[in-house]
Amino acid sequence: MAAADRRPLLAAYGILLLATLAVSVLTYLELIVIRAICPWCVSYAVTIVLSLGTAGLALRRS
């Protein structure tokens, strides 16, 4: 793959890194401050982390 072809994948990975950071903060607030677990929030956090892993694997293979 050419370097130009990896740019969208690198952009997606960077956005997912920021999203993972945001989800981490929100999960902290959910567990420590609010002391309540929202099933929708947990499913969203899992989806973001799995997406980050998938993008990381795609980057590694390209």
Q: Compute the number of structural domains.
A: 1
Low-confidence stretches: none
User: How many β-strand runs?
Assistant: 0
Order of helices and strands: HH
Tertiary shape: elongated
Q: Given the structure, what is the number of helices? A: 2
Helix residue percentage: over 70%
- Termini Cα gap: 6 Å
Q: What summary fits the major beta sheet?
A: none
Mean pLDDT: 92
Question: Strand-residue fraction?
Answer: under 5%
The Cα radius of gyration reads: 14 Å
Please state the structural category. mainly alpha
How would you describe this structure to a colleague?
It is built from two helices and no strands. It is mostly helical and 62 residues long. It has one domain. The longest helix is centred in the first third of the chain and has 32 residues, at 3-34. It is elongated. It starts with a helix and ends with a helix. The mean pLDDT is 92.
Question: What are the SSEs and their pairings?
Answer:
Layout: H1 3-34, H2 39-61
Summarize the structure.
The chain has two helices and no strands. With 62 residues, the chain is an all-alpha fold.
Which structural traits does this protein have?
62 residues; mainly alpha
